Amino acid sequence: MQKQSKKTIFHHIAQGCIRIYQFLFSPDKSIFFSPWLRGRVCRHHPHCSQYGYECFDHYDFFTASYRTMDRISRCTPGNEKTYDPVKYRVVFASGSPIGVSFLENLISDPRFDVVGVLTMPDMPSGRGMKMQENIIGLKAGELGIDSTNIKKPHSLRLDSKKYAYEAQEIYEWIKELNVDILYVIAYGNILPQHILDVPKIAPLNIHGSLLPAYRGASPLQQVFVDGLSETGITLMKMEAGLDSGPMIDKQIFKLSFSDTVVDLIQRVKEYTPKWSLDSIDAYVHGNLEEEIQDESLVTHCGKITKQDGIIQLKVDIGEGKADTLENIYRKYKGYYLWPKTHFQLRVKSGELKVVIVEQLELDEELYEHKKDKSLFLDDYVLNPAVISLVVKPEGKKAMSWEDFQRGYL
Q: What predicted TM-score, i.e. pTM, was given to this entire model?
């Protein structure tokens, strides 16, 4: 679980001063003030003095001092009543490996208290189809989350014919946790409205695009397929619609010519977790405002299928127009992890082979002049813009295109 900063003599002195203030001078807690003042001066919950006292329990001295003074500066008698805890109680929801770095950062951040983890059920995988523990559930256990607060429901829908009882249990569990924030990154299933209504502050989602562009399941891949040079991440408030909630903050990433989806995922894992937590803290304290999405700018991206990775070549078996090098390279970068770009060739044995593109390196300058041509010219000669091509015949080891030619063509 979260580590607390080691308390020093300065922490104890500060807390002692706060206790003296509460006893002698606080309008809400002092024994010398009339009861009618209580609740009329400090409008926050917990009260500012108690907030400061708890800050010195959880943060280093300078951070605790800053957060206490910041709270006091935002507290005036005319303010509306505001719920503003020292630590936000969070349920983390993710079903993807990309969520691991987000969970690690969340647990190590003293501003947040991870009280529960919601992830996908364990699934069989590998050649032996042995049951494999979900990576998020496994990491949550390693980081100290109690197993009773790591949930892996098959469904969260209360009207599910098969899993309604399980969904009801999860609903009751989240309510009992007294959650402030539901923090979601690539969970894998749509969260129903009754779950989104539970958090006191908000259900918040990390979406892999600059909304309102690329609502849906594959934004990280689709920006490469569409040939964009810039993308980003959106922190958004969740609602019942698919990625349609108000936007809170955005983080922008530039994409270089040779970047693939792997490079983008690595940047997201490295830079987005801390950015998102800082943005959440700023949002809760009123320093970031919600922005409604412009529906006229909405685009969508669906689930990726194996067929999406198919490329048509001039030397392909079958009919159809050959893909240009530009289209092939875009698919290669977007589908680098799965389903990978692949094509069919009839080899010298007469067999029809599925060939996977494992690595494709291009000369950027030549590419601009040759991108409207195909990957191959006549007789399997590579496009001049290709520096190297590594392919993998299905069921075989990866090899250079030259080795493939010698062995198969």
A: 0.86
